[in-house]
Amino acid sequence: MNRKIVLASRSPRRIQLLRQIGLEVEVRPSDVEEVMDPKLTAPENARELSLKKARAVAGGSDDAVVIGADTIVVVDDVVLGKPADPEDAVRMLSMLSGRTHTVCTGYALVDRPSGREEAGVEQTSVTFRSIPREEIDAYVGTGGPLDKAGAYGIQDDYGAVFVSRIEGCYYTVVGLPLSRVHAALKRFTQR
């Protein structure tokens, strides 16, 4: 890619995914609050939040493609964001135990100086096996779930063992639908 790429996130998972496909990225987290608009669906919220994040960071960029992303977990129309504390993480994991939920990851690219924008969302269904309470407590005790939507990371050593099945893009669950982002980046960087 012949353009400067800026990631509007401090997520180590997103940074790693972009580096995995050979990109050097500058990390500039946005200060956008992750507030859900009750008039929008979860996928619409994920898309809009990712666009707000990318726009916020792009405003301070002269020449770059800025990538924003947001991940939302939904089970029975209940949105699970990042847990507020360990007890909230236990509550979320207990809700997900033995059930299927949807992970919606929005992504957005904003180009500077042109102002061109592209945004989308990818959804993946994830099924958890039934998880005994002692496993939930052990996982929450690692601190790993506290910075992740839905209180788990599919890529984590321990969070991964809860997942019995996924339908859709694995990388969407990690936090960035790589195939879609890569295709969009190619369109943005070809002048």
List keywords for this structure.
alpha/beta; Maf protein; seven-stranded mixed β-sheet; 6 helices; 7 strands
Description:
By secondary structure, the protein is an alpha/beta fold. It has a single domain, classed as Maf protein. The protein is built from 6 helices and 7 strands; from the N terminus they run βαβαββαββαβαα. It has helices at 12-20, 42-58, 86-96, 133-141, 170-174, 178-189, and strands at residues 5-7, 25-27, 64-75, 78-80, 100-112, 117-128, 163-167. Strands 1, 2, 3, 4, 5, 6 and 7 form a 7-stranded mixed β-sheet that branches. α3 packs across α4 (133-141). The longest helix is centred in the first third of the chain and has 17 residues, at 42-58. The N and C termini lie close together (11 Å).
Helicity range: 25-40%
Total count of helical runs of at least 4 residues: 6
Radius of gyration: 17 Å
β-strand amount:
25-35%
Chain oligomer state: single chain
Q: Runs with pLDDT <50, length 5+?
A: none
How would you spell out the order of helices and strands?
EHEHEEHEEHEHH
Distance between the termini: 11 Å
Find the count of extended strands (DSSP E, 2+ residues).
7
The total domain count is 1
Mean pLDDT: 93
CATH architecture: Alpha-Beta Complex
In short:
The chain is built from six helices and seven strands. The protein is an alpha/beta fold and 191 residues long. Strands 1, 2, 3, 4, 5, 6 and 7 form a seven-stranded mixed sheet that branches.
